[in-house]
């Protein structure tokens, strides 16, 4: 379910596409799905750290996005991560922002 | 037939007011390859063929919640397609094998495509095929080019059909061809009066499942327009392929090395100078997770300005290339291509953007890819 608008069944995000012939996905078997999910969380956290947000897993089915003060949102996929992050933090998350890119480079 | 077995392909026929959509549709429906196609048009039916299904869709748009563009669903379009599918399953209408949607001349293609992709029922039965746009060669230069809807329609197109070329000045057709190529280098354009195209080629789904850059500009191979394939560039008869004028910003050759690219820019004095296309190449395998995080973040903030993104990815751990296609906020499920196309093995993305700087987009992608590079593939624990 889309946590932002409440519509049911909107889960087939392109980054996590349902495996079917011809479609590239790492959502095709349990191990690769878990590995991809864990890697996604870790990498997203490198970006989110610049905004003092943190992403975690929730039973392998959803994500928990939290602020430093503990305010938390449940999201289903990357499609909802950035709108939810902007909503929680009240800030704009712009990957073209030179300041963000500088901070990401400095953290390497 | 379908790129995804079991799914019914949906083709969108778009184009500005009076650009000849219905005329083209009427012609296409006479072709045997589309004998099994159902048709949805959003104006009162003009193509009354007994064995085809024509329903009317109005322009009602349901905005579920501001900011949740992934779930933008055009309510009555969704209901109309669901109803058609239900009738098909119950045997009340012929078992159509394709759906063609003719949009209004002022429609932005994105909500229509998004409806098919985001609606939980439709996405289980239908898959998006090529977007076909008609462009009126006789009036485009002086009228419709100034309309943002026109630009979005052309930028979203996989195939462009130039209409009314028989009453347009050859010079104007050639100039328009160059304009279209600059605006959307990933689309292939044909003359409606030409013989180099077929209904089956036009209304296919190869743009979403095949090589997304197969129709890249001829200049990148050091060839003049139209000489490299079977389909002449927009509006060009074979004898018009040579020397048809201004190509400022074209013909730079390949961009080599990590993150190099080049643009296909318009005349900067034009009204639409902010809309331009450019490509970015990456010479080493890239991380899928990092790419997904970057593109979702980019589209969340700038999706309305990313009119189109298409590309081939050389992903870490994958032997075969992966094709990605996106229109504004909508990205198709990525597909595995059968093999690498000729040329160097590299990731290559073509962007058609409105007001975004090429250097900024490239720098951002490089930064995110470098961030992912710092995290080895086996390092997954949070």
Automatic annotation (TrEMBL), chain A:
- Protein name, as recorded: Uncharacterized protein
From TrEMBL, chain B:
Which intervals carry biased composition (Basic and acidic residues)? 214-232
- Give start-end positions of Basic residues composition bias: 252-263
- Note the InterPro entries from the entry: CobW-likC_sf, CobW-like_C, CobW/HypB/UreG_nucleotide-bd, P-loop_NTPase, Zinc-reg_GTPase_activator
| Domain of life the protein comes from | Bacteria
- What does the UniProt keyword field contain? Chaperone, Hydrolase, Nucleotide-binding
Fetch the Pfam families from UniProt. Answer: cobW, CobW_C
Q: Does the keyword Hydrolase apply?
A: yes
- Domain CobW C-terminal: from-to ranges: 275-369
- Annotated region described as Disordered, given as residue ranges: 214-271
Its UniProt entry gives the catalysed reaction(s) as:
GTP + H2O = GDP + phosphate + H(+)
Key word Nucleotide-binding present in the record?
Answer: yes
Q: SMART domains from the entry?
A: CobW_C
Record's family?
Answer: Belongs to the SIMIBI class G3E GTPase family. ZNG1 subfamily.
UniProt function note: Zinc chaperone that directly transfers zinc cofactor to target proteins, thereby activating them. Zinc is transferred from the CXCC motif in the GTPase domain to the zinc binding site in target proteins in a process requiring GTP hydrolysis.
Please give the name of this protein: GTP-binding protein
Query: Which species is the source of this protein?
Result: Jiella sonneratiae
């Amino acid at each position: 379910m889309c946590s932002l608008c409440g519509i049911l069944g909107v889960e087939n995000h392109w980054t996590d596409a349902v495996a079917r012939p011809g479609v590239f996905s790492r959502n095709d078997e349990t191990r690769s799905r878990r590995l991809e999910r864990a890697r996604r969380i870790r990498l997203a956290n490198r970006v989110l750290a610049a905004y003092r947000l943190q992403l975690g897993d929730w039973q392998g089915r959803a994500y928990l996005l939290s602020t430093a003060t503990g305010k938390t949102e449940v999201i289903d996929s990357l499609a909802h991560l950035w709108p939810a992050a902007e909503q929680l933090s009240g800030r704009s998350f712009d990957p073209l922002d030179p300041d963000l890119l500088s901070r990401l480079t400095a953290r390497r | 037939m379908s790129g995804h077995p079991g799914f019914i392909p949906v083709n969108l026929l778009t184009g500005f007011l009076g650009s000849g959509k219905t005329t083209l549709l009427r012609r296409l429906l006479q072709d045997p390859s589309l004998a099994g196609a159902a048709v949805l048009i959003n104006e009162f039916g003009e193509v009354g063929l007994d064995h085809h299904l024509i329903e009317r869709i109005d322009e009602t748009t349901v905005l579920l919640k501001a900011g949740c563009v992934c779930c933008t669903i055009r309510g009555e379009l969704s209901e109309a397609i669901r109803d058609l599918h239900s009738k098909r399953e119950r045997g009340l209408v012929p078992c159509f094998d394709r759906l063609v949607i003719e949009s209004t001349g002022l429609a932005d293609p994105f909500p229509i495509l998004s409806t098919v992709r985001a609606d939980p029922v439709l996405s289980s039965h239908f898959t998006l095929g090529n977007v076909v746009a008609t462009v009126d060669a006789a009036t485009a230069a002086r009228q419709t080019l100034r309309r943002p809807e026109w630009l979005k329609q052309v930028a979203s197109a996989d195939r462009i059909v130039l209409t009314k070329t028989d009453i347009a000045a050859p010079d104007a057709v050639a100039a328009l061809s160059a304009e279209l190529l600059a605006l959307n280098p990933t689309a292939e354009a044909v003359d409606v009066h030409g013989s180099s195209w077929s209904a089956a080629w036009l209304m296919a789904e190869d743009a979403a499942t095949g090589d997304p850059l197969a129709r890249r500009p001829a200049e990148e191979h050091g060839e003049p327009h139209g000489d490299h394939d079977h389909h002449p560039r927009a509006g060009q008869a074979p004898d018009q392929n040579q020397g048809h004028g201004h190509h400022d910003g074209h013909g730079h050759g390949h961009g080599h090395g990590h993150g190099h690219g080049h643009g296909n820019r318009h005349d900067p004095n034009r009204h639409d100078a902010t809309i331009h296309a450019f490509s970015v190449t990456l010479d080493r395998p890239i991380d899928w997770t990092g790419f997904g995080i970057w593109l979702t973040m980019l589209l969340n903030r700038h999706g309305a300005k990313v009119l189109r993104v298409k590309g081939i990815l050389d992903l870490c751990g994958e032997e075969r290339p992966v094709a990605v296609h996106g229109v504004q906020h909508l990205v198709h499920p990525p597909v595995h291509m059968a093999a690498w196309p000729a040329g160097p093995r590299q990731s290559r993305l073509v962007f058609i953007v409105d007001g975004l700087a090429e250097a900024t987009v490239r720098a951002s992608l490089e930064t995110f890819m470098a961030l992912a590079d710092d995290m080895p593939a086996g390092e997954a624990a949070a």
